[in-house]
Here is the input.
Amino acid sequence: MQRTFASVTIAYNAARSLPRQIDALLGQTRPLQEIIVVDNASTDGTSAMLAELYPQVTVLRMPENLGAAGAWAAGLSYATREKRHDWVWTFDHDSVPASDALELLLRGVVTLTETGADIGIVATLPMDRSTGTSYPPLLWRDGFVKGSPDLLQQPVWMADLVITSGCMVKREMVLEIGLPRSDFFMDIFDLEYSIRARSRGYEIAVITGAKLAHQIGNTRKINLLGHKRLWLNQPPWREYYIGRNLTYLAWRLYPTLKTKISTARYLTKHLAGVLLFSSDGLVCAIRMVQGVSDGLRGRLGIRLRPESESAPRQSVNISSVEKIETTKG
Here is the structure.
């Protein structure tokens, strides 16, 4: 039986940005059998745009915003369990793959499989064209360790952690290890899924020649003790989920002493950066501390929604940080 390949895109209010990705997927040198978009309760007409311009695209419209984690789980469930596609290529809505990216990924899978490797995830190398920076895949050694720049010069190398956008997952692996954790809602869920795959013996291969244009976010250059770096300015609700999910991962899912120390060190440094460089530093810091507290207590689910903090900055009341939505979890 011939293998089939599908893509799953997580989309939220993506009516303007999504066409660039869909055009790129339709223009792949190795065609996809199905293009799937999970519309995460968009309010800008994303589903209507797809129906009008891309009727060949399968749209799964969620009744509410499930976050990137919930949408990814829903898309993978549909593609692997219902439609039974052999490989599923996943994206954020603002990512645009090169025209030969899928062909290079599949070629890498064939080559690695011939060597006996059990490949569960194969990933592109995401690059932010506006800043020239990339999302380097990471190695997991009781904490987060960036891969050596020398490895990125190699055509193929094995990683432990990759981001959702641009990675392609094997159906057999999804059926064995389960779906991503929808109760993470946003952030860290892709790292948890990578660690879970590695713990079950699956390899994660990065094909450096397979390129993906991926917008990193609202970044700006900062000077930290004489070292220039990029700072990703996250809204308070995102800092909550980063703090919570990292803490939960280190203290409850993989609770070794080294993991806890490494994660605590990272969160401390990140908290300092939030206070120094974030536009809403104090609110972000409070949200992050609250997330760490919930992570330690195992309080997951949708505790905070983006729209609850969409008001102008001057209207934010610090005392309101205790008013957390608990519709799930």
Residues 310-329 have pLDDT under 50 and may be disordered.
